[in-house]
Structure formats: C-alpha cells, structure tokens
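Quick one, probably user error.
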C-alpha cells in the first residue's frame, strides 16, 4: 500500500509539472499574441504598407490567436484527462484494498466453516460410536 501511495504522489507530481509547463506555454503564447495583435494594428494604422504585407501581418496575428485557442483547449483537455487518471488510480487503489479485505474475510469465513465442519464431524463420530456401543450392549444383555 505504501508503494502505491508513493506512486500516486509521483503521478500527482508529474501531472502538476506538466500542467505548469502547459500554463507557462499558454501564458507565453498569450503574451506573444497580444503583442502581435497590437503590433499588427499599429503597423496597419501608421504605415502605408502594401496589401499583401498587411494580409501577412493579419494572417500571422490570427495564427497566433488560433494557437492560443488550441493550447487553451488542449490545456483544459489535459486537466480533465489528468484529473480523471488520478481519480481512476485512486479508485483502483480502493478497489485493490476492498479486494484484499474481501479475501481476508473469505479466509476467516473458510476457517470458521472448517472449524464447524470438524466439530460436526467429531459430534457425528461420537454419536455413531455411542450408537454402536449401545447396540453392542443391547446384544449382550
């Protein structure tokens, strides 16, 4: 059980580290997206750029927004999946413990039943022996 607790702690730590990396990347892309959008707006407003360059600036800004949205969705998906994995792991630990308890209870019940069977068999032998002696005594009277 102790090793399983350590494994759960390691799983949780790995999940937290991965979530930190995702959050850091999301924050970085968010900042880049904000800067790119502001730069795009300023370039288009303040400079007489050819249409193709304006289109490229807008396209790059949109691509960063799309990347930000995709990473946000991935982050939410990861949170759900990793939380589910931890819940499943905990349920597995609880199931394993319940199974161990059921096995222990079964072993105790089996021993109790064996003791009852031995007692009944002993009583049966005693009664049969007593019956046989009674029969023998009755024949010699």
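Nope, works fine. Designed sequence:
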């Amino acid at each position: 059980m102790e090793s399983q607790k350590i494994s759960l702690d390691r799983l949780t730590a790995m999940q937290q580290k991965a979530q930190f990396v995702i959050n850091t990347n999301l924050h970085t892309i968010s900042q880049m997206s904000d800067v790119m959008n502001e730069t795009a707006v300023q370039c288009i407003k303040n400079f007489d750029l050819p249409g193709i360059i304006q289109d490229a600036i807008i396209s790059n800004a949109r691509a960063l927004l799309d990347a930000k949205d995709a990473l946000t969705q991935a982050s939410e998906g990861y949170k759900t999946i990793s939380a589910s994995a931890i819940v499943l792991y905990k349920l597995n630990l609880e199931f394993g413990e319940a199974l161990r308890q059921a096995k222990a209870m079964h072993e105790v019940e089996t021993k109790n039943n064996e003791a009852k069977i031995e007692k009944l068999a002993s009583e049966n032998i005693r009664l049969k022996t007593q019956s046989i002696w009674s029969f023998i005594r009755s024949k010699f009277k």
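The helical segments are 2-46, 51-139.
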